[in-house]
Amino acid sequence: MVGVLALQGAFREHRQRLESLGAAGREVRLPADVDGLAGLVLPGGESTTMTRLLDSFDLWEPIAALHARGGALWGTCAGAILLAADVLGAPPQDGGHQRSFGVLDVTVQRNAFGRQVDSFTTPLDVRGLDAPFEAVFIRAPTFVRVGSDVDVLADYAGHAVLVRQGRVLASAFHPELTGDARLHRAFLEMLVPELTR
């Protein structure tokens, strides 16, 4: 059972990709929805809004506990910001600080590629994939510092945009907005390798 945080963003597209690969998907809105999950996708959206919704629905502790007991996490765009140890570019009204789970040893820069009008699509060479992945960047962050235990799986214009540390995967782009399910397959392989063999 794989969960998709369903507070904001393209969570339905993530669930559809996972289910197309044979996984049982569950939309997560309440603490009880986290029970029994092997992993959780934190989708794109607006990271400041998502932090407030995580507060409102009391989801910080259940998601942290999921990871602590061996569950895998995958953050895409805003979801990647929520996983980072350090966040740059938080709104001034929040004192320049943004709460995160801190399970990925990176510093992430919010909105590093500009505003919504600066969105773009580009092919990325991804380590482990046999052909480029068409990546959709929308108000995307970048990983400006990557810890020694973090593997960089793809970069764009000199910036890390897809990284992994143990049971944590993070992408600055939106893989759910393409028809390519290879990164969703890679995430499932982090949970149950035999699912996709």
TrEMBL record:
Pfam families: SNO
Homology family: Belongs to the glutaminase PdxT/SNO family.
Subunit structure of this chain's protein: In the presence of PdxS, forms a dodecamer of heterodimers. Only shows activity in the heterodimer.
Known role: Catalyzes the hydrolysis of glutamine to glutamate and ammonia as part of the biosynthesis of pyridoxal 5'-phosphate. The resulting ammonia molecule is channeled to the active site of PdxS.
Annotated PANTHER family: PYRIDOXAL 5'-PHOSPHATE SYNTHASE SUBUNIT SNO (PTHR31559), PYRIDOXAL 5'-PHOSPHATE SYNTHASE SUBUNIT SNO1-RELATED (PTHR31559:SF0)
Keyword Coiled coil in record: no
EC numbers: 4.3.3.6, 3.5.1.2
Parts forming coiled coils: none
Listed InterPro entries: Class_I_gatase-like (IPR029062), PdxT/SNO (IPR002161), PdxT/SNO_CS (IPR021196)
Name of the protein this chain belongs to: Pyridoxal 5'-phosphate synthase subunit PdxT
Binding site for L-glutamine: G45, E46, S47, R110, I138, R139
Keyword Zinc: no
Pathway info: Cofactor biosynthesis; pyridoxal 5'-phosphate biosynthesis
Keywords from the UniProt entry: Glutamine amidotransferase, Hydrolase, Lyase, Pyridoxal phosphate
Catalytic center residues: C77 (nucleophile), H174 (charge relay system), E176 (charge relay system)
Reactions listed under catalytic activity: L-glutamine + H2O = L-glutamate + NH4(+); aldehydo-D-ribose 5-phosphate + D-glyceraldehyde 3-phosphate + L-glutamine = pyridoxal 5'-phosphate + L-glutamate + phosphate + 3 H2O + H(+)
